[in-house]
Amino acid sequence: MIKKLAAEFIGTFTLVLFGCGAAVLAGFGIIGQEGIAWAFGLAIVAMAYGIGSVSGAHLNPAVSFGFWASGRMSTTDMGGYWIAQCLGAIVGAGILLVIASGSPDYALATSGLGQNGYGLRLPSGQGSPGDYALIACAVFEVVATFIFVAVILGSTQKGSEFAGLAIGLTLVAIHIVGIQVTGVSVNPARSLGPAVWVLGDALSQLWLFIVAPMVGALLAGWTFRAKLLTSDDVS
Is residue 176 situated within a structural domain? Predict the structure, then answer.
């Protein structure tokens, strides 16, 4: 179990550092929305093949919740994964802050750390990148997480060698569609990491990026537990 928790910590650390790092260090002016989307997706692909054999490379409390809801993970293991994932995200965002602070053009209060948000964009940079309202952001996060977790549960039910690629590409597509809506969470740990350092409005809006992804994951897990999306040749 220690190996699994270490893998989840390192994997989530990497996801936040690379994904949020692409937004903070390169951003829309250099690599654009598509570049940020690919940074998140490629980080998932790298970790899926790098540590997937150790922990399954969940890197996301919602994914672990989906596995638990589908009957493929114990409550004890899920709790351990949640702790490792959240700590990895917080440390990853902290390292990103140290790196970003090395630039004279960077200020945490205005540049942030790639945190998620909803509602009108504030001078601090908090809020929806496209000024999307709370309901729209909530719907996006629930639906996107459902799709993401469903792809993960489906592509791993037979242990496909291409599961990591399918999962990473799905995350790329979700980011291309949703960055302007919420900045894309679909992952409570990814949202927690930056919010812990940014504080203020980022922390007060964090609840949505915990609740909505968990709802989407629960729905996805339930569909597999009910065998609605389970192939006939999988026991």
Answer: yes
